[in-house]
Prior knowledge:
Residues 36-232 form the Heparan-alpha-glucosaminide N-acetyltransferase catalytic domain. The chain crosses the membrane at residues 42-60, 80-98, 110-126, 132-151, 158-179, 199-219, 231-254, 295-312, 319-343, 355-373. Residues 1-28 are annotated as: Disordered. Keywords: Membrane, Transmembrane, Transmembrane helix. Residues 295-384 form the DUF418 domain. The chain is mostly helical. The chain has one domain. 60% of the residues lie in helices and 0% in strands. It is built from 15 helices and no strands. Helix 1 (38-56) runs antiparallel to helix 14, helix 4 packs antiparallel against helix 5 (137-147) and helix 13 packs antiparallel against helix 14 (354-372). Residues 1-8 have low confidence and may be disordered.
Amino acid sequence: MTTSTTSSVPLPPQPALAPAPVSTTPQPAAQRFRGRIRGIDLARGLAILGMIWAHVKPIIYEPGTVSYILSEIPSGRSSALFAFLAGISLAILSGRNVTYTGEQLRHAQLRIVGRAVILLAFAAFLSIFPTVIAVILGFYAAWFILAVPFLHWSPKKLGIAAGVVALIGPQIINGFHYLSYTFDIFLSGGVNAYLYEVLLTGMYPGLAYMAYVFAGMAIGRLDLNSTAVRLRMLTAGLAISVVGYGSGYLAAIFMPFEPLPIDDIDAFSLLPKEPTIGPWDFFSIEPHANTTPEVLGNLGFALIVLALCLWLTPLAKNVFFPIAAVGSMSLTAYVGHAFGLYFKEDWFMSMSPTPFLIVAGAALAFCTVWALLPLRRGPLEWVTYVFSQWFARPTLPRP
């Protein structure tokens, strides 16, 4: 048996592989969206007019009729839309789609705190002239402060935060109400009550309304000029409103509200003698119920209104210019109408549409004329801007 051997021939050395070329061309940075979007002004103008209607609407419609249902649309939803648009304003102030960082973010945060301070001043002014309406400005200031730590969050995180608040916040509010009545705590008034008033017990509690603010901040980070974004907003708004209002409607069918017997109600305060909490406290979609179904329904409504107003942006420069003018100086319009109602308390829940026509007409006329002047801001908007810029001014180091 023969064994053959094959001599090994060394292979020539292989050239080393050259490293892949690395591009030294810097990637283009995302461009920050700029320019005023008149569609937002239009939506804000509708929110102001809706609040005016809610305050002086005539009580002449028969409950259950189409006229009555239509007349109730602004109630509760206008303030929710106002809070939602406040969130968009916060997104704009903090950089829109490219969030500020470092010193720019710090400056934006201080400007927002400055705006909150001046809003409290305006709220204090209106408190000197009390009216029957629940002034929203003090709550608005609290929302601004509460939002400051979240200004750098992404749209996704802000959207999740809105959902969490909408689902959990109303339950905390209900639990707080029950505990406060059961154990007679947290019922003191005055300035010491401000914190839990703006978070839990007020007309516009933060644990419900911050859902609108967070959602607005998330939307404000998007390209609102994009047709695709508007379609998604409209679709999401329809879906969320159906879930919210639909669940409340079904609850009304299967868990109808049962009024308390007259003997269980205190004759002086008109409140229950004993603390009660039932299913209806968690599912009501009545205005300012601040339940999860109402918050979701109102949030969907706000998304729908904004999407439609964005599509009507071209008309905001002519056909709807007066409404957009009110929205561009909403603080002036709100304070003006609240101050005016001090002198006309009988206009609240009147039997005639005349008060609404007068108040809304005055707001539309004044804001339209002012907007035609070569000025960039409304009267109170100018005060707010100057104060917030002063509040956020650079501080010099001490010698």
